[in-house]
Amino acid sequence: MSGPAEVTEKAARAAAPTRGRSLARVATARRQWIVMAVLLAVACYAPFQLVPFRVFQLTMVLVYAVALLGLNLLVGHAGQISLGHGAFFAVGAYGSAIMIDRWDTPHLATLPVAAAVAFALGLALGLPAMRLRGLYLALVTLAIAIFLVPLLKRFEAVTGGSMGLTLGKPVPPAWTGLAEDQWLYFLALAVTVVAFLLAHGLLRSRVGRALHAVRDNEAAAEVMGVRLSFYKTLAFAWSAMFAGAAGCVYTWVIGFVSPDSFALTLSITLLASIVVGGLGSFSGPLLGGLFMMFVPSISQDVNDAAPGVIFGLLIIAVMYVAPTGLAGLAGRMTRSITKILRKE
Amino acid sequence: MLEVHDLTVRFGGITALDSVGFSVWSGEMVGLIGPNGAGKTTLFNCLTRRYDADAGEVRYEEENLLAVPPHAIAGLGIARTFQNLGLFGHMSVRDNILVGAHHTGGAGFLTAALWLPRVRREEARLRAEADSLLERLALTEVADHPAAGLPFGTLKRVELARALVGRPKLLLLDEPVNGLNSAEVEEFSGTLRALREEFDVTVVVVEHHMGFVMGICDRVVCLDFGRKIAEGPPAEVQRDPGVMRAYLGTAI
Question: Does ipTM top 0.85?
Fold first, then answer.
């Protein structure tokens, strides 16, 4: 009777959810861009409203976020582990410091060199290390972090030994009219934005999918034509490069490097922060950076005698409440809030 | 297209494949049957270079397949699915399928990070291809859902889509209808038959489901304890006394 009409109706009904869903996807993507734009606007506005010390703290959050972005690429996206990323951070920091100290290189010019050196070192160490997996890889990367400090103390003529190197900070150009702390903040912000854009491009492409495939199922990835050693090694090198870039900005901001700033604790804190921030998520590095900057000082306030204990307890608490990290928690909260709003 | 000669694989003292030899011609659909432990999956793993052969030769379009590194197999136009699913659990269904087209892309770390026009064009092409396969296999609904947590029958289709998106010449299916109910098996047979025409692909399928194998294959090879015991048209192999013995025991 109503044959054709029924058929078209059925087809329309079948197509409707698809169309609705793709519209929803576009909407989500647009909302993400709006959120990013608002965040960036707030980030640009903040340094004019805060006292220099707070601006410095935010600058450090950005520095850590860049390093964590690199670590996230390796741990969160490619599923490998590194207990030695503090070493690449240090290589970037010392690379920049030595160039400024020895040859009076302009601060900004040290960034590409520091990143390249960290990349090359990451590649050289990644080639053998990425043939290992799990605990063995963890041990090898741990060794990288362990031998670094004595190495830095040894070559005193170049690295300044245990005393470290003290350097001038970048001077804000007159046309900007910015104070030193604000200029540093904007430099760090620019590096962060570029780093996030690079990582974003990487992850949404064929390369990002290959890394995810390696993380989820190596055997199947290889059958799909993903060359495991190539992707793992380059993920390690890129990850080291981001850490090196972060280290370079660290040198600009602090104006001082010493071996003890880059001890094993730094590597461990980096790994803990990215796990707390949210592995494999876009906002994880930023949340991890906030955690890395503010939680130690908060724990210092809570209990002066044992900040380490409080820090550890806070990590446990976060992992208990949010096993997928702060980013996962934020996502869950947004979803439940939208659900509540929709009901009303 | 594919020639296997005297292929032997040993694990310790066990001989998983013992001088197995058969050929697959272009455009054919060959069924590989045999009781559990007959060496069917081992053979697949040899063809995709997951295992090394101890002796023998595999030629694929005049190329010595055993000398090709594992990651280069896909580039030669060989795709496979896995017996117990080899999907990427945290990735969306669409991304799973896109990984299947990995070898057809060329974006590297640097070009992708800079999101060059070339990469953008490639990405658009791959996505269009993936979307058409999603639609073809009725997966559009779940395209953005992570693979983990979807029903088994759906995941089997995702695997098939992932294998096909790279436009393979030779498709190796490892127990594609295992775990599906009879209606789903019927449906899968129809889909596979149509896709085979559409994609002009040669298929080798390992399967226990006799109805499925006998209904869809042009030729059947039967393995038992790592040896080939029969080869021929489905009806003939089905009547072969050796095959009956292997499957049902001796008292026939």
Answer: yes
- Which residue of chain B has the CA closest to A239? B109
Q: Which residue has tokens 């009806």?
A: B235
B64 and B173 assigned to the same domain: yes
Residue partners of B163: CB distance under 8 A and separation at least 6? B79, B80, B81, B100, B171, B173
- pLDDT above 90 (res A211): yes
Tokens coding A64: 């850590």
Mutation target vs A (from B73, B109, B126; most A CBs, 10 A cutoff): B109
Q: Give the pLDDT confidence of B123-164 residue by residue, as tens digits.
A: 999 999 999 999 988 888 888 889 888 888 889 889 999 999
**Which of the four pLDDT bands, split at 50, 70 and 90, describes residue A344?**
low
B31-43 pLDDT, tens digit each:
998 888 888 888 8
Residue with tokens 């436009």: B167
Angle, helix A307-321 to helix A325-343, in steps of 10 degrees: 50
| Total domains present in chain B | 2
Asked if the C-beta of A201 comes within 8 angstroms of chain B's C-beta atoms, the answer is: yes
* Residues B147 and B182 reside in one and the same domain: no
End-to-end Cα, chain B, rounded Å: 37
B102 lies in the same domain as B209: no
DSSP-derived 3-state class of residue A172: coil
Q: Is residue B107 part of a domain?
A: yes
Q: Is residue B108, in this structure, part of any structural domain at all?
A: yes
Residue A206 at interface with chain B, using a CB cutoff of 8 Å: yes
Domain check: are B53 and B102 in the same one? no
Residue type, A149: V
pLDDT over 50 at A4, yes or no:
no
Q: Of B178, B137, B166, B132, which Cα lies nearest the Cα of B154?
A: B137
Nearest to A219 among B50, B108, B123 (CB): B50
- Is residue B162 included in any domain, yes or no? no
Tens digit of pLDDT for each residue in A34-81? 888 888 888 888 888 888 888 888 999 999 999 999 999 999 899 888
Judgement on whether residues B62 and B172 belong to the same structural domain of the protein = yes
The answer to whether the CB of B91 falls within 8 A of the CB of A212 is yes
Q: Which two tokens stand for residue A49?
A: 């409203």
CA distance A70 to chain B (A): 13
Using alpha carbons, select from A282, A279, A247 the residue that is nearest to residue A266.
A247
Distance from CA of A112 to the nearest CA of B (A): 15
Question: How many other C-beta atoms can be found within 10 angstroms of the C-beta atom of residue A229?
Answer: 12
The partner residue sitting opposite B114, judged by closest CB among A201, A208, A212, is A201
Pair (B187, B235) in one structural domain: yes
Q: Which domain holds residue B16?
A: 2-77+168-248
Surface-to-core class of residue A239, CB atoms within 10 Å of its CB (0-12 exposed, 13-18 middle, 19+ buried) = buried
Global pTM?
A: 0.86
Q: Over pLDDT 90: what percentage of chain A?
A: 30
| Residue A228 pLDDT > 80 | yes
Count residue pairs from A and B with Cβ separation < 8 A.
108
The residue out of B155, B186, B211 marking a domain boundary is B155
Do B179 and B71 belong together in one domain?
Answer: yes
Residue that finishes a domain, picked among B97, B121, B155: B155
Residue A1: pLDDT over 70: no
Does residue B238 sit in the same domain as residue B195? yes
